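Q: You know discrete backbone vocabularies at least as well as I do. I have my own habits and do not want them to colour yours. No explanation is needed for now; the record alone will do.
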Amino acid sequence: MSMISHGEDRVPIPPADAQHYSTVCSYCIVGCGYKVYKWPLGKEGGPKPHQNALNADFSKQQPQRSGNWISSAMHNVITERNGTRFNIVVLPDRNCAVNKGNHSVRGGTHGDVLYAPDRPTADRLTSPFLYRGGHQLPTTWEEALTFGARIIKACLDTWGPDSIAMKCFDHGGGGGGFENNWAVGKFFFTGIGTQMASIHNRPAYNSEVFAAGDAGLASLPASYMDAQLADTIVLIGANSYETQSIYFLEHMVPNLSGETLAFKNATLPGESHAPAKIIIIDPRRTATVAVAEAVAGKANVLHLQINNGTDIALLNSLSRLIHERGWHDQEFIETRTDNFEEFKAKNLLQDLDHTLRLTGVLGEQLLMAAEWIAKPKSDTHRRRTLILYEKGLIWGLKNYENIASVVDLALLTGNLGKPGTGCSRLGGHQEGYSRPRYPGTRPPINVDDVAIKGEGSKIFWVAGCNPVGGTLNAQPFRLSLERRTSIVNQALNSVSGGSEEDRIQAVLTALEKGVFF
């Protein structure tokens, strides 16, 4: 389902006695609060406050972001198992400290995604399919599970655990959160023991938590409050206005505009405060850059429009500049880090002139960025810098090294574990993520790259995601999967009408002849 077109010219108002529940957005990590209202079809509330569940006066224009305006995408009609039909409305919760009645583009469509037998959401599979005679045809769960289990077991016995590769609940399919990922991790990491894995944006080609975790950082070592307290916010490879809308609009923008100055003075007394500056590192001029400039003024927004793939050189050059000017946090380094001499011998040797040629960034821009990140404030207090990154940095072919470089910058400047600081991804998924330990190497194996090269594994298990839509080299990856999948399809076609044993043996014979994935 890519889009639902609404023809409604109105939506019903929840009556005063509608059932209501509190919930959280199912899409991402930001944690926006929502209210769900449910009441029988054919019943409706009135415009006066006492006549509706929202206690709102709909005879008047509703204030902006009041949490009372119901769009058609927030409403649906569902049918329960006994045939009873109900109206459902899912509204942003104006009392939630995270979103304050605001919602993202995705969050405002919760009504759309509810199952309804007479709407596009009815288009979903209810039974497994198996290739027969060149077509995918329904089969029983018993047959499908037996078929898969026997082939997996045969591959394990013959070629070992890395003959099983998987990509599960990865970008766009992670709505199941903790439960889905625990089961997947238990099956693939403990039961099978494969290191050919990409699970819920990690570990494989999206290894930000491995790189940060190997440096001793928690997954998300910052809160939304830190975005309100920071002296400088750094966004790397992130278009947060469009993709972390609530985080950006409700927590960063107030800091850029100066609305949080009183909060800063009360929370961090004894040091000077000003509206935050923001550094945006992105090859494109995004909506985030434009909005930040409109709010903070161009003088307080630094857009480093780097060339693609030059993040590591830029980040290491910033570290070198900061160290050479003595803006690093020596006390933090001595008390909270290890291997600083090794870091200096490797990362701080980045040639600055080469970086300028490579990245396309001007020398004065590089120096300004270093100052905004680490130069002490006029009262000698250290700057509080919040460093946040997303897909532009995470989805690189050198993503482990990308994240390691940005973490090193945060460690060098002591911007961890203090109010107004932090270094992590902005978040796009539920982070209540626990699973058995990944059995692979550092950096993890890139399963997409393995598939493209035609190496390694015999089976490629996909669940809850579009494996091609979430990869860097989409076209070669798609062609690789098509090519290798056709081998198995041909094997199944060759025994069309045969027994289950015939089909299993045909697939195993095909896998024996050559690498499938």
